Structures are given as structure tokens and as C-alpha cells.
Amino acid sequence: MSSHSKRRILVVDDEITVCKSIRQAILTEEYEVEMALSGEEALKKDQEKPYDLIITDLMMPGISGLDLLKNLRETRPEVNVIMVTGYPTIKTAVESVKMGAFDYLPKPFTPADLRGLVTRAFKKAVEEDRGKGAAAGSQIPVGYYYMLGHTWLKVEENSRATVGVLPDFIKTVGIITQLELPKVNEVVTQGNGCGKISDADHFVHRIWSPASGLVIEVNARLAADSSLLRRDPFQNGFLFRIQTSNLEEDLKGLLQAK
Amino acid sequence: MKRYPPPMNLHRSAQKFLDLPLRMKFVLSFLVVILFGGLLSLFFGIRLEHRTIIGLAQAKVRHDLASAWMVYNEKLNDIRDIVLLNAGRDSIQAALLAGDRETLFRSLVRVRRDFNLDILTITDRFGKVVQRTNGSAIFGDDQSADPLVSRALRRETATATEVVPRSELLKESPEFAERAYLRFIPTPMAAPRPEDHEENGMMLKGAAPVLDEQGKVLGVLYGGIILNQNYEIVDRVKEIVFKGEKYKGKEIGTVTIFQNDLRISTNVTDAEGNRAIGTRVSQEVHDAVLLRGVPWVDRAFVVNHWYITAYEPIKNITGEIIGILYVGMLEKPYIDLRNSVMLTFTGIAALCTLILLIILFFITSGITNPLRRMVLATNRIAQGDLNHQVRIGFRDEIGQLAHSFNQMTENLKLANENLIQWGKTLEKRVEERTKELRGMQDYLLQSEKLRSLGKMAAGVAHEINNPLTSILINTHLMLEKLEKRHEFYENLSLIADETSRCTQIVKGLLEFARQNPPQKTHTNINELIDRTTQLLENQASFQNVRIVKELDPNLPAIKLDRNKIQQVFWNLLLNACEAMPKGGQITISDSLSADKKSIEVRFTDSGVGISKENVNKLFDPFFTTKSSGTGLGLAVSYGIMQQHDGKIEVKSELGRGTVFTLTFPVEDHQPESAQKGGINE
């Protein structure tokens, strides 16, 4: 893919206003943004001229966002898909990540939220282009559960678990300028934000919690040295530990490293 | 108008008897027994009595007949003596021997008159009449054929009753023939006879031989009395035997001499009071006495009255039945006696029955009175007076019944009291339960309201999400393009902020609508309260508010979703704070319920309070009194408490303040895991 050619983005939503708004939010000189009002139209357009990124609403009549994702994962696994979702469909959103969606974004959102996500998506694409063979450190340890491209979960004794961020995520973020983590005794829910990472471009990236539970320990060392996230993502660079509350159910929404 | 009894009459009368009071039944039963027994004994008594009395009467009449015979035979003996003595007189012998009829006549006429004989005649040794004494000139006729005379001719003295033919009577005197002549008076039940009159006579006759010194028969002296219409014997018998007794103007005793079946001498009178000669004996008696020659003793209708009678045949010298001697006693005195005895007997029986009934009355009183008392008692008990006791002093079946009855009443009373007690507690329980149910109903109603509202909210929120997304994005895009000094910048910022707030509202709505399952962990509720209040202390709105905590340090840990419960606490504290714009005090207290099954947490503020109508709507979504609230805080809190199987209740008084009470159920003992899950790690 030429660096000079504009990146092509397709916005899919059954509401034209939302489509237009999203288009407006991400429209820059770098991107060529087109719209589709249904899953069918999206597939048709993608077949005519493939896109680099597809931002699709999850709930649509006809071919839903999830159907669209499935179709794309089968025919064009290299395309990144961002799911836009209403609040009640977080579970589906987590499901979509498991199925290979790059990320999801709950409605309503600000242009900044979306831009951060889009930036991350393209960074990931660049990373993939750059080094096909990923670094040894980025390999997820066996037995860890993870939300593809986001966070991992290491299940421990007594329904406790450690939560960390996957190297893939950090890579897409770039330079970390600020890390915001939950406090002890705070409750985190699977698929909802459990922390935020700000990058050099002032984009704020939300970290989705891989499981629900009560925070029982926060990695204090990260406050001093956020680079641990990058250097030792699966051990000392963990985010926090939780007492899980709905582990069995939560694990169904996650992948496990083998 | 005659009404025919229905066929079930018997049944009905039996029913009627069964319906009678007990005492009446007793009396009637006794009466039936007494009457039956009484009548039976009366019947047999009367019969027995009758037989006895009549038997006595018959014995007497038999005896009287014997007496009559005595008189009769005495008369015969008199005649015998007269003829015997006079036949032996020398003067008579001499006169007969000499054929001196003049002397014979003079001597014999005197004798006949002196001894009141009808006939006194003397014959020669051949039986030819020498001299009669009734002035009859006839003599020389042969009397040797006469059985008595012939015996006398054979030197025997004989007496007997003999029938004397009319011719012989005429020889003596026409007067005798006239006395003997009797026309039959028609008599019912008499045996039929071809003749209609009797002309022969019947006489008591005696004959004795007149002997010379050598004992040779010189002749026969015979004589006697003619019984026909001669009442001497019968009246004598009556006088001796019955002593002239009368009964109601009637002669009690009657005596009759029959010639064959004809009354020739009697003191039985007819309707006019005349002697009933000329009437005849009944066929029955005729057959028995005259034909069969047996005595006849029985009651008989004689002329015009019932008599107890005895008949015996009168025989002549040869043993031939020629008449009847009869004695009869008027039956009426005996019947009257019998009747009076019967009456007396019946009277005594009736009196006895009466006395028995009176006794029965008292005896049954002894039975029925206690029963009546029992009935009264049951009535009173039926009317609800359970204090009533039957007092019966004796220990028979009824006494025992009364005792059992009293015991039963006592038990009933106890049971009733228990029932009443139970009823009272039941009432209380029902009240409690009703209250509970009403609470539950309210709760369910509220829940249902919340659920349906939640659904709607979710729908609305979802639909509003898309426009909000557009507004948010576009506002931000515009802001990005405007200088901060631009006149619309502030307006747009405001729009952006408010849209964000809308986002929050929508999020809240969805949270409320979604009611995702709570993430429960064991929690020390006091620490959760502490943590929440710590967060609040930095808030500007809590500057004038003092928070007082009265927490029970010994509360068990309970399982709850800390985040959500903290949200509830937060909501309540914020509400309290807003109810006290000029500052005040919030008291948070908690405690374990008496039954240790729940923990109560109370938030008491000293704020303005909530009006009654508002209290009811307090937990409704979108209900708010604040200008800047979403009206979801308490509704969400309600939902959260519901998810925890807990309750949220409010009590408020205008001007005084409000108390919110949260109730959490305590799970069965899991203190260890609570420690492990504790928040202080």
C-alpha cells in the first residue's frame, strides 16, 4: 500500500445523519471516507474497491454489523473493523472483538474518541506491514486469556485474576503520556473502560476490562514507570488485580493463548 | 266436609307420638300398659266374679230347692200322719165295721177341716168308697185301682204326689175340678202341646189301711191336698227360705210347682202382679227335667224376669215324672251385686291408675326434669353461653350424662377460648400478613412500573443515542473550528456539555433499564459507608453539611455489589444534601435486625422533608423536584436494592426531615469468605 495514496475508510450506519457526522469527524486530507447505509451496500462497495478500515454500526436491519464483520473476516482478514455500538450491546461488542474486530466504540462519542481509535487502527496496520514476525516478547503466554488487541487476563486462585494490556495495544498507541487506572475497591465490568491511556497526539484511548470484578490491587510501579507496559507486558507491567465476580461467563467472551 | 286421612296417616301419628315431650311419652306408654293390663284383668275379673257370684247363687238356689223339698215332703208326711193316725182310731174302725156312714162322716169331716185337707175319703176292704167328706153323695165307687189305695189295701201306708183325673175330682167336688181346670196362657219358648188346657189335678196324697184288732184290713183312709191353685206350700217355702225378702219391690225368691209343664202353684207374678199360673215351663227345662228326669240349674227367663233357677222332677209313687218343683232367685240382685263389684273394681282400678299416673308424673319428673335442664343448657350453649353448667345431684345415667355434658361444655369453652384467642392472633397475623402483602404488592407494583418504564427508557435511550452521537460529533467539530474568542464558542461549548450530560442521562437510563446482574462480593458495610462519605467530603455541596455516623461495629459481612450500593449511598447522600440548602446534619446509622436476618442502614437528614403525595412518587423514574436532576437516582437505587433482595423505604415529615432506610438480607454464615473478600488488602 503506497504511503502517498489516501487511506480508504467506509462508514456504515443505517442512519445517514450518524454516517455523515462520523465522516465529518474523521475526514482529513489523509483519509478518503465513504458511506454505506446498510451491510449489503457496505459489502458491495468493499468488493468494488476495498477499504482499509470499516467503521460499522453494530445494530442494523438486514446484514448486521456482526454479520458484516464475519463476512469480512472470512474474505478479507487484513481489513480493520471498528464496531460502533449502543450501550446495551457491550457484550456483543466484546464478542465482535473476539471475532476479530479491531475495536469498538460505544455511542455517543466525541470526534476525538473516534480519531484516537482510527489512528490506532492505522498504526496497527503499519506495524503489521513493517514487521510481519512479531517480537518474541509480544507472544502471549500460554494459558492467558485475552481480548484480541486489547487486554489480557491471567486467572489465579480463588477467582482472582490479573489484568494487563497486550503489546499489540501499546504498539498502536505509541508514546504513552498518561496512564489512568482504577482505584482499589472500584468495580470494573467486562467490556467497559477500566483505564485510559493518552498518547503524544493527545488522543485518549480507553482500555476495556477483560473481566468483571472488584479491584483489589493496582500496579503501583506503573505510576512511576509506564514503560513497564511495553517492556514487561505480561509480568511486572500488569495493570491491576481483581476479585472476579462473574468469571465463568466472562471467559466465554475471551480467547485463550495456546 | 269430610277429609279422608292420607295413606301415611299411621306414619304421621307415629311421628306425632315421637314428637311428643318425653314425659307425655312416658305417661302414654304407662297408660297403654295400665289400660291394657287393667282391661284384661277387669275382663277376667268380671268373668271370674260373675262365675263366683252366679255359682254361689246357683249353690244357694240348689240349697233352697232342697229346703223346698223339705217343706214339700213335710207336707206329704203331715198327710201321711193324718191318714195313719185317723185310720187307727177305734171309733173309725168301729164305724167302718158297723157301716155307720153318719159317724164316719162326722168324725172325718172334723179331721179334714182340722188338718186343712181337701180330700179325706174312706173305703171298705175292697176299696169301694164308703164316705167322702166334701158333702158329695157319691159312694160305692171302686178306688182299688188307685196305686196308693191298692197299697193301703195291702196294709201299707203310702204317700205320694199323684195326678188326679177330672172325673175323680168331680166325684169329690166340682169345686176341685174347677180349681184344677187351667187354660194355658201362651208362653214363649214353651214346648208345644196339643192341648190348650189342663183339667186334671195334682195332689199330695196319702193312704193308710184301717185295720181291726187282728190286723185285718177293714178299709182304707186316704186324703190329701190338691195342689192346683193351692199356694200354701210355695208361700211357705218362700217364707222359710227367702223370709219374704224383696228387692226393689220384687220378691227375691219364687217357688213353683208344675203339673207336667204347667204352673199350677206359684208365687212368680206376671206383669199385673198376679200369680202366673197357667204359664208353662220353657222347652229347654221341659226337655231336661220332664223328659230326661235330671235336675236343671241355670239362669232362666221366668215369665218376665231373669232368675237363677233350680228345677227338679216331681215323681208319683211309681216313679213317673208328673211335675216339677222349682225354686228361683231373682238374678237382678246378683247382677247388681256383680255390677257394683265390677264398678267398685273398675273404680279402684281407675283410682290406682290415677295414683300410678301421679306417681309416674313424679317419677318422670325425676327423669325429664334433669333432661329438660339439659335441653335448656344445650339451648343456652347453642346461644353461646358456655358458662352454663347443668347441676344434677345424682349419679345415674342422666347424672353421668350431665357430668359428661358439663365436661364437654368446659372443653368447648376452652376450645372456644382458644379459638377466640387464635382468632385474635389470626386477625393480628392477617393484619400483619395483609400489611406485608400490601407492601409486597406495592413493591411488585413499583417493580413492574420500573420494569415497564425501564423498557421504555431503554428504547428511548437507544433511539436517542444516534441523534446524540450526531449532535456531539458536530458540536465538537464546530468547536474545533472556532476560535475561543468567537461569539458562538461559549454557546457551542454549552451545547457540547449539555449533550455530554444527555449522554450521561442516557447512560443512566440504560443502566437503570438494563439492570445488569450485580457483581456481589462479601463486604463490610461500615467500610463501604466510610469510603462513600470520604468521597463526599471533598464535594463543594457538602460544605455546610455535617455527617454523623452511628455504625454498629459488629455487623456481619454481606454480599453486595459495592459499586452499585455505593451508588445508592451516593444518591441518598446527594438527595439529603440537596434537601438542606442551608446546611444541616445527615445521620447514617446501621444495625442488625432483631431476628439477625437483615441489616438496616438509615440515612436521616434534617432537611425540608417530602410532601406525602411526593413520597409515593419518589421512586418513580424521572420524578424529580430538582431543576437539574434526571429523576433517575432514586429509581435506580430502588432497582439496585431490588437486585440485592433488599428494600428501600422512606419516611418523611415536611419541615422535619427525611429518613431513608435500606434493608439488606444477611446471608447464612459465611464470615470467612467475607474476611477474604474484604477491601483492606
Write the layout of secondary structure elements.
The complex is a heterodimer of chains A (258) and B (681).
Chain A: E1 7-12, H1 16-26, E2 31-36, H2 39-48, E3 53-57, H3 65-75, E4 80-85, H4 90-98, E5 103-106, H5 111-130, E6 145-146, E7 151-155, E8 160-165, H6 167-173, E9 176-180, E10 187-188, E11 193-199, E12 204-208, E13 213-218, H7 220-224, H8 228-231, E14 240-244, H9 247-252, E15 255-256
Parallel strand pairs in A: 1-2, 1-3, 3-4, 4-5
Antiparallel strand pairs in A: 6-7, 6-15, 7-8, 8-14, 9-11, 10-13, 11-12, 13-14
Chain B: H1 9-19, H2 22-87, H3 90-98, H4 101-114, E1 119-123, E2 129-131, H5 147-153, E3 158-164, H6 166-172, H7 174-180, E4 182-183, E5 197-198, E6 201-211, E7 217-226, H8 232-242, E8 246-247, E9 250-251, E10 253-259, E11 262-266, H9 283-291, E12 296-302, E13 305-315, E14 321-330, H10 331-382, H11 397-481, H12 489-514, E15 521-523, H13 525-537, E16 545-550, E17 558-560, H14 562-579, E18 584-592, E19 598-605, H15 612-617, H16 633-643, E20 647-653, E21 657-665, H17 671-676
Parallel strand pairs in B: 16-18
Antiparallel strand pairs in B: 1-2, 1-7, 3-6, 4-5, 6-7, 8-9, 10-11, 10-14, 12-13, 13-14, 15-17, 18-19, 19-21, 20-21
Percent strand of chain A: 25-35%
- Note the run of SSEs of chain A as H and E: EHEHEHEHEHEEEHEEEEEHHEHE
**What is the helix content of chain B?**
40-55%
The geometry of chain A reads as globular
The number of distinct β-strands of chain B equals 21
Radius of gyration of chain A: 18 Å
How does the major sheet of chain A shape up?
7 strands, antiparallel
Give the CATH H-level superfamily of the largest domain in chain A: Response regulator
So, CATH architecture of the domain at 53-335 in chain B?
Answer: 2-Layer Sandwich
Annotated CATH topology of the largest domain in chain A: Rossmann fold
Q: Kindly state the mean pLDDT of chain B as a whole number?
A: 83
- Which percent range fits the helix content of chain A? 25-40%
Radius of gyration of chain B: 73 Å
Instruction: Flag low-confidence runs of chain B.
Output: 670-681
How many separate domains make up the residues of chain A? Answer: 2
The CATH architecture assignment of the largest domain in chain A turns out to be: 3-Layer(aba) Sandwich
CATH class of the domain at 53-335 in chain B: Alpha Beta
Average pLDDT rating of chain A: 85
Return the CATH topology of the domain at 53-335 in chain B.
Beta-Lactamase
Total of helices of chain A: 9
